[in-house]
Fold:
Amino acid sequence: MALPGAYLIDLERREDERGFFARSWCSREFETHGLNPRTLQCNVSFNRTRGTLRGMHYQADPYGEAKLVRCTAGALYDVVVDLRPASPTFMRWQAVELTAESHRMVYVPEGCAHGFQTLADNTEVFYQMSELYRPEYARGVRWDDPAFGIRWPDGERIISARDRSYPDFVPGRSLLTR
Structure:
């Protein structure tokens, strides 16, 4: 991926006549590649309807979280936005398609917002989180904020009131602290 610290991860499959086996996460391998290996919480997001959009979410410091995201059923358009002011890709975004069939994962580093739009009914997403959820540190940027210019798939969207109501992004205003 073009955002520093964000990675698209493919499984290393060991295939035979039964199917395949693969590790989806290994703390030692994450450490070797400079990724946060800490997993304190796992979440599942089930989305009944194609066009469901969730995001763009992150958690403020000192509880910034890294996420490992995988689609376990259906398909989704997964988006990462770089909110790290010192990053060379500050305010840029990148998107990838994740499907249950591809088994691909996205690693979202601390300081980046994450969201997705489902491309199929009954899409399920599995997250491994490096921090516990702390509602008082939960933050977001609006999915359609012109400051980022994210290009989402066409079609109707189902979006929560909270995700629709995040204020416009203002460069210079700290997003990562409380």
The chain has one domain: 7-11+20-164. Residues 7-11+20-164 form a domain with the Jelly Rolls fold (CATH 2.60.120.10). The chain has a mean pLDDT of 94.
